[in-house]
Design a protein that fits this description.
Helix content is 68%, strand content 0%. The chain is an all-alpha fold and 311 residues long. The protein has a domain at 212-311. The chain starts with a helix and ends with a helix. Keywords: Signal.
């Protein structure tokens, strides 16, 4: 990255005719360190508001670092106060004052793509209901905003948006699956609560069994609350015995709680598909680690299966 910065700074100084192309390429570099952004802006890099919005629309990570560098060096630009507040200020009151009545979809996309979860959440919570409804009127816009916030791990913003009527109306199964996959990759304490709200969206009823299985595999080591929500989806009733047993084997390597969730929350018809031979096999992971409590949980599940088969 240092070599890229050195070369770019050289081009900006020695080849001004290439500045526009160099700037576009730099704006599309993800995770640019703040000190490098300052170095390049100091070397003469200039970008327009339209270029900034284009980078945010492409979901370039930490694109706001360029605005921060401009502000640090007091470089004049055509970037409006609302965008500067989003890129540089976590204070909700300041953000609300700067945004005012200008709530374009592009500005919201910039906010959801910014580095600060506090800022993203403040922006989405500042929107009056009528303004939010108008901004999320287009299905593609609503989906892009939700996915961008999830990709940047702004869990609180995702949670708030999941409750908005526009999101409930426009989010499809493919977007919901992608959003759930993204939020599972963060260690935010609200991941489980967020997943539960997302699983209440109408699109959750359309998730395939393959998609739900993939999400459950990700939830087993990270979030029992997410696992509970996924077990209650219609697609969970169509999981194969091999898939379910694989989940139990995976859970045995992490936490007895995950096994309890699977045995208590999966539909009875799914548990009935597990053969007695499958459940009689203590997992290698459990044996290797001496996790007696997990083996006991598997045996308890075997007893539950025996009781279910009687009905």
């Amino acid at each position: 990255m240092k070599a890229v910065g050195w070369l770019a700074a050289l081009l900006l100084r020695k080849a001004p005719e290439a500045a526009a192309d160099v700037t576009t390429r730099l704006l599309n570099l993800p995770d640019v360190p703040p000190e490098l952004a300052v170095q390049l802006v100091s070397a003469g890099m200039r970008f327009s508001y339209a270029q900034l919005l284009a980078a945010a629309d492409s979901m370039v990570a930490r694109v706001d670092v360029w605005v921060q560098a401009q502000q640090q060096l007091r470089v004049e630009s055509n970037i409006p106060a609302a965008a500067i507040a989003i890129c540089c200020n976590d204070n909700r009151d300041n953000i609300q004052q700067a945004i005012g009545d200008g709530h374009s979809a592009d500005l919201l996309q910039l906010a959801m793509n910014c580095s600060s979860s506090a800022t993203a959440t403040a922006v989405i919570r500042c929107l009056p209901a009528a303004v939010a409804q108008e901004a999320l009127r287009e299905p593609d816009v609503a989906r892009k905003l939700l996915l961008t916030a999830a990709t940047r791990h702004h869990t609180a913003a995702v949670l708030h948006m999941a409750c908005l009527p526009g999101m409930q109306q426009h989010v499809d199964a493919a977007t919901l699956h992608a959003v759930l996959m993204q939020i599972q990759r963060t260690d935010d304490a609200h991941v489980g609560e967020c997943a539960q709200h997302l699983c209440r969206l109408p699109a959750a009823q359309q998730l395939s069994s393959e998609a739900v299985l993939q999400l459950m595999r990700g939830a087993v080591p990270s979030s029992c609350f997410t696992l509970v929500a996924l077990c209650g989806l219609p697609a969970a009733a169509h999981l194969t015995s091999e898939a379910v047993f694989g989940l139990f084997r995976s859970a045995s390597g992490y936490s007895p709680r995950s096994i309890d969730v699977l045995s208590d929350c999966l539909p009875p018809m799914v548990l009935k598909r597990l053969s007695s031979q499958q459940m009689a096999q203590p997992t290698k992971a459990a044996k290797a680690d001496g996790l007696r409590v997990i083996i006991a949980a598997l045996r308890d599940l075997g007893k539950k299966l025996t009781q279910l088969r009687r009905y």
